[in-house]
Amino acid sequence: MDQKIKKMDRPPYGLLTVLMIGAFITFLNNTLLNIALPSIMTDLKVEPSTVQWLATGFMLVNGILIPSTAFLIQKYSVRHLFLVAMGLFTIGTIIAGMAHVFPLLLTGRMTQAAGSAIMMPLLMNVMLVAFPIEKRGAAMGVFGLIMMGAPAIGPTLSGWIVEHYDWRMLFHFVTPIAIIVLLIGFFLLKDKKEKVDIKLDFFALLLSSIGFGGLLYGFSSAGKQGWDDPMVYGTIIVGAISLITFIIRQLKQEKPMLNFKIFKYPAYALSITISMVVTMAMFSGMILTPIYVQSLRGISPMDAGLMMLPGAIIMALMSPITGKLFDKYGGRVLAIIGLSIMVITSYYFSKLTFDLSYNYLIFLYSLRMFGMSMVMMPVSTNGLNQLPKRFYPHGTAMNNTLQQVSGAIGTALLITVMSNRTESTAKDLAADAMKNVQGQPTAEALAQMKQQITMQATLDGINFSFYVTVFISALALILAFFIKRVTQAEEENPPAAQKVTTKLAEN
């Protein structure tokens, strides 16, 4: 089930360029809808609990499909997978752009996700194979520019489009670009792959889908429905049981769909743990900041998007630089500096007020993104560097799967913390306010008091959630001190399938 890539005189830059353009479009789509959700709710007449499925559904499809990418990468050529991924993404974009009812929009969004789920592990695997360890940091830095820069630009672009056009223009804008990239891939990608004797374990795929899908659905729904909802804890329990069964089955198989033996490599196990913790903390900024900026401060979608633009630019500029620094100094010093910045900025985000200046928010958000740019790719690359080459597809698939799961857990945790804190604070403020009321207040005075209490309680809930991320980031910082520069582990009894050669050729 493992592959050996034929050594080339130089990396296939043409192939990588096409893959990166396709990946940029699919990653950009991940956050493009965030600021447009209020407009979609109004236009399609749906509630917040319904519209959030545009994000939850996307995450669910990714969580279900990404575990199977280790099999797909070994079974099919890069050309084959790229065309399928971009084809699915393009079809989904067209469907979503024509949507006049919510189910059709959700169908398009989930079809997009099917393409996106294949694209990220595919590109990461090609880069791991194409570059030697000593040059991999710089290469992965460029990949990081796409993986983190594209989603960061999404809110700014989305804010401008939604303020000037209908929300469907978000999809109409992406459609022609996706079609062009698909055509470029069709004519330029010419890599060939010899026949591989490997079959998909459909029962394992079913267990994986139920396992990861159940966990993602349960945690994603907890923030809205509450942890005591039977559908929430029921799907989490079913997902956990299915996932445990899936892991046991994979460990017993000679050619598993997703090889969990990669966790015996300590650098990889440490890197994926840190990445999961950082992903959980990262979602605080992505979810809580827009709520504070738009709902409490009344800042327009366009200005809210612009507020995140400097951070996106910093991340885009820093990613290749961070990659080169990784090649020179290793991952530990970068991770420690980056996570220290995340701890400090998370603390200051827990001190938000109603009168903080717009420029201060830009500075704080940008500094947080700067810290984040020094963590994610160096940590992930350091862990993947220790894996034998035949484990690359499994390592990249595991990375992306667990990031989806930790993202869902982080979202649910932070929304639940915010909601509970907001509710308790509102009760305390209401009790204090009623004690100080003299006489019988008018209906107008009560409404005004209620609005003030709601805003103050929501602000307290947001601040407390950011305060929780201080400790989450601090945990990752402690773990970062154990990072060591690694060398690639030697193969241990490589299976016969490793003898299969995959040829990557550049036309």
CATH architecture of the largest domain: Up-down Bundle
Number of strands: 3
Helical proportion, percent range: over 70%
Going by CATH, what is the homologous superfamily of the largest domain? MFS general substrate transporter like domains
Mean pLDDT: 80
The helix tally amounts to 18
Domain Major facilitator superfamily (MFS) profile: 15-488
Family: Belongs to the major facilitator superfamily. EmrB family.
Transmembrane segments: 12-33, 53-73, 80-101, 113-131, 138-157, 169-188, 200-219, 231-248, 268-292, 304-321, 333-350, 362-380, 464-483
Protein name: Multidrug resistance protein EmrY
Describe this structure in a few short sentences.
It is a multi-pass membrane protein. This protein has 507 residues and is an all-alpha fold.
Report what the structure shows:
- This is Multidrug resistance protein EmrY.
- The chain crosses the membrane at residues 12-33, 53-73, 80-101, 113-131, 138-157, 169-188, 200-219, 231-248, 268-292, 304-321, 333-350, 362-380, 464-483.
- It is a multi-pass membrane protein.
- This protein is mainly α.
- It folds into 2 domains: 4-201 and 253-424 and 453-503, MFS general substrate transporter like domains (Growth Hormone, Chain: A); 202-252.
- The protein has helices spanning 13-32, 37-44, 48-51, 53-65, 69-75, 78-97, 102-130, 133-164, 169-188, 202-225, 230-252, 266-296, 301-329, 331-349, 358-373, 376-385, 392-436, 443-480; strands spanning 4-5, 192-193, 501-503.
- The protein has a 3-stranded mixed beta sheet, with no helix packed on it.
- Helix 7 (102-130) packs across helix 17.
- The longest helix has 45 residues, at 392-436.
- 51% of the residues are buried.
- Residues 1-8 and 495-507 have low confidence and may be disordered.
